[in-house]
Amino acid sequence: MLMAYDQHYTGSDPGAVAAQDWYENNLVKRMQDLDPSRTLIALGNYGYDWTDGKTEATELTFQEAVISARDSEAKIDFDSTSLTPTFEYDDER
Asked: What is the pTM of this model?
């Protein structure tokens, strides 16, 4: 099973779970060693909430991320560089 995600993770700098170019490059590299007929590719369907001043992000399911965007009235954008959805919001807490 090829886990094709976690380009960025809870302890990393903010960024995509798996940007398209990162995903494609890793797939090409790994498939040189793996048998395609015996390989399952796992995709990440989740996100991270990075907060200024914190060293680790909070993990969110896709549904939690969409609800968070809705509740904070944030617009979900499609990042043309990473080819992934993203949003920003300010929390007054």
From this structure: 0.81
